[in-house]
Amino acid sequence: MDRLGTETAFAVSADAAAWAAQGHRVYPFHLGDINLRTPVNVIEAAERAMRDGKTGYTPAPGIPELREALAQEIGAARGVSYGAEHVSVQPGAKPVIGKLLMSVMNPGDEVVYPSPGYPIYESQVDYLGGRGRPYAYVEEADGFRIDRDSVEAALGDTARVLIVNGQHNPTGADATAEEIAWLARIARERDLWVLADEPYFDIRYGGGSRSLASEPELAERTVIGYTFSKKYAMTGWRLGAAIGPPRVIDLINKLNTNHESCTCGFIQHAGVEALRGDQSGAREILATLRERRDVVVDGLNAIDGVSVHRATATFYLFVDVTGVYRRLGYDDPHAFRTDALRETGVSFCSRTHFGRPLPGERRTYVRFAYSGIDAADAEEGLAALKAYWERQVTGLRRTTG
Fold first, then answer.
1. Share above pLDDT 90 across residues of the chain, in percent, rounded to a whole number
2. Helix 280-301 crosses helix 40-51 at what angle (to 10 degrees)?
3. Which of 81, 166, 186, 326 is buried most, with the most CB atoms less than 10 Å from its CB?
4. Can you tell me the distance from the alpha carbon of 311 to that of 167, in angstroms, rounded to the nearest whole number?
């Protein structure tokens, strides 16, 4: 248990909730939850399923209708031929991480994963006795890109699994076709299993996403982590899937039986409606997220000592706050974050919430999520943050002047 980590954004949520409980206003930029309603047709499908008595156990791999719908949807979007046998329904995408590692990794095997990155990668690798080998992202003129040198350096003799989060949490990086092809070549040459963790594959504001599963010979060694949480604002429903070659999907199904028996049945029927029904609700969710992105990017870039890219995917922004952090004399990201919360109500995550920092990191970044805050509230909160930070900097200048 000492090796097991956590999703540290939830710890930030606890801080924000405690501050709000004392009567303070909080502007929640910390957690990737969505404060938008699930599309009505999906809600109604769940209600119909319950009223029709679909409230018992289901097969461990999931109901056939959902497995077939997922195979068709995921395969069509990625140019891969999948059938129901390639799909294992899960209570969210998060279980796919641990179940894949349990299926293909032995203790002592190396797992190559992004850092900063979703902290559950690091947590599950450590917990299951793997050897975590993180790779980095670098900031370029148009956003963040995978640091290819760090990937090469992370590939040891016992590398077994490569984790790729193409539309990346926390940086908002959007993997290019060239990056995906390069990673695919490495996976083929090093005989690696790949976890293509793709919760934000459809959360994008232009262009298209590319999956490693689409690359030549990669479908047979890649497991996709899919979730309904983001596209359909179903975070609390807990519905997702592992999609990949049957030889590993069969093992994941065996783990389903041992862990949770099955995913909630009537929610699976709602998932079928989400995939095959009216998509206008999903389009409205994406349009709202785009509006929020623009408000938050503009508000952050208006703060002296802060800069951020206009990310083309996800609902996260990895914000360079090095200027204001240094001017205010901070050396503790936790203090920087909690002071902002207490003085302005603005709550965000720091780099340390996304895996252990790597040697050589010299800039200070924080993550802002805009999925759980309305545009007007975001604008108000950022105005308060700007006033606070710039007032503090001015005060220090006067003191030292």
1. 92
2. 130
3. 166
4. 10
Report the amino acid identity of residue 380: E
- Inter-residue contact 366 to 323 (CB < 8 Å): no
CA of 12: how far to CAs of 26, 35, 213, 352, in Å?
Answer: 12, 17, 34, 11
Cα–Cα distance between 18 and 9 in angstroms, integer?
14
Specify the pLDDT at position 395. Answer: 67
| Residue 244 pLDDT exceeds 70 | yes
Report residue 109 as tokens.
Answer: 């095997």
- pLDDT exceeds 70 at position 399: no
Query: pLDDT at residue 152 above 90?
Result: yes
